[in-house]
Structures are given as structure tokens and as C-alpha cells.
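Worked problem 6 (solution included).
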Amino acid sequence: MGSWRTLLLQCACLAGAVCALMLFAPGSARAWIALAAVIAVAAFAGISIYRRRQIERLSAQIEQVLARGREVSLANCREGDLAVLESQLSKMVGKLARVNRQLGQERTALADALADISHQIRTPLTACALMLPAIEKEPDAAVRKREIRKLEEMIERISWLVTSLLKIAKADAGAINVSRVQVDVANVVADATRPLEPALDLRGIQLEVSVQEGAAFAGDALWSAEALMNIVKNCMEHTPAGGSVRVRAEESALGTTIVVQDSGSGIMAEDLPHVFERFYRGRMEPSEGFGIGLALSQALVSVQGGTLKAGNSPDGGAEFTISFPKLII
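Solution. The predicted structure is:
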């Protein structure tokens, strides 16, 4: 109602101005002034009514977007300034729709991750629950100590699984804070392989490292080291005793590449398309694995703008390639 009162007030002001003009105009010109005034008032009222109806239509459509989340078309207005306004509103609505879809995808990804966590920890938790009564009833202290150590290892595995899945969920939702600094590749390789050295020695596997001097990339050292560690660990688990795991890295004009190879049997052709799928365990996957390490590595590399690819080396064995392209070439 307020907009219509404003319109009537404007028309009244215009009519008053015309009446004032007619008071000072010659008698012969008053008829023409009155006719022109009627036409002007009618035109002004018509244009104003049309514009207000367009604005009301836009307001109703915006209300549909805000109240119901509906996607509406804002492409019916042809008048100049209103067309500009409608174009901007259309862009806003489109952006809101994209954000809404993205939020929906993030919610779905988080729900899937939580479902994965629930599914994967059910078995080890059940095993822990069954082990506790047996440990309590075990009279032999040495046996009890050994079983407690197994229980601790089971709990550590559950903790690692939950932590890894939550990291993947954060990466899917874009909630991982990634720094963009110059990262020294030699330090990343050292940080990634150092925790695995005892396990490599126990398995009789040789670690060979070859890093180009001064090789670097723009990324996050912590997340990159964790991604590389999971890859090296995967290669170690698929390499027989007496074999080797090789890590080499080099920087070129296009970017920095880190390649991890093992001397195992390689990745079977039917497993290659699924290597980075969560909980996928190929025919050569060790029984104790969860099938989550490579999926986490890919998520951590991707969130930094890099790529992770899997294949087989021409010399035999699996080969994983991490690539970080140059930001400015």
C-alpha cells in the first residue's frame, strides 16, 4: 500500500504543478496545457504502475528463493535500469543455488564418511569387547600381558582409522587448512620415511632415496609428508623380504614430481581403476589393511592442487607419482 500512496502523491504533485502553470498561462494556451498535462500524468502513472509491478514480481521471486529455496528465472524484464537490476539478481540467485548445492554435497560427503567410520570400526570394536573378558580370566601373567598388547595394537588401529577418515571428510568438505609456502622436497621425503625405517628393517626391505638438490614446490609440508608416508607404507606392505622401495624426486620447469616404486608384483589391471577408492582392497592387499591409506593420500595431495596417479613400473612393481604443478610458468 505504501508504494501506491507514493504514486498517488507524485501524481497529485504533478497535477498541482500543472494547475499552477495554467494560472499564469494565456487563456488560449490553457486548453493545450491541460491536454498535455493529462497525457503526461497518464503516461507517468502508466510507466510507474508498470515499473512497480515489475519490482513486485522481482520481490515475489526473491521471496520464493529465500523462503522455499526454489530456483526461479529472472530473465523477463526488458526495461533498461530494471534489466540491469534483474541481471544482478539473477547472478545472485545463481550463486546462491551453487552454494546450496555445494553445501548439500558436503553434507552428503560427511554423512558418507561417518557411515564409513561406523561400519569399519564395528568389527575391531567387537573383537576388543570379546578379548577383554578372556584377558580378565587368564591366570597366566605372561599370556595376559601378550593379549593386552594385542588389545593395545587393536585400539591404535581403530584410532588411526577414525583419524584418517575424519581427515578425508575434512578434505571432502574443504575444511583442511593448507598453507602455500615453499616446501623443500628433501625434508618432506625425510619426514615421510623416518617413521617407517624400523618397519622396513624388520621386513628386510631396502629404502632407496634420490632427491634432486634444491627441488621444491608450493604447498604444505606436513600434509605432503603424511600423504607420501602412506604411499611408502603401502609399497612396503606389498614388497617381499629382500626387496626395495625407491623414492625419487625432481623439479622441472613445469612442476615437481615425486615417484615411489616398489619391487613387488605390481598392481593388477583390474585393481588399477579402484586403487584410490576408500576401503577397496585388491587381491594383493594384506589382510590387516583397511584400504584407506591411498585414499587419504589422494585427498591430501588434491587439496594442495596436486595430482596422485598409480601404475606399474616398466621394471616391475607398483609406481605412484605425485605431481605439483608450478603456479606461475
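Discussion: The mean pLDDT is 78.
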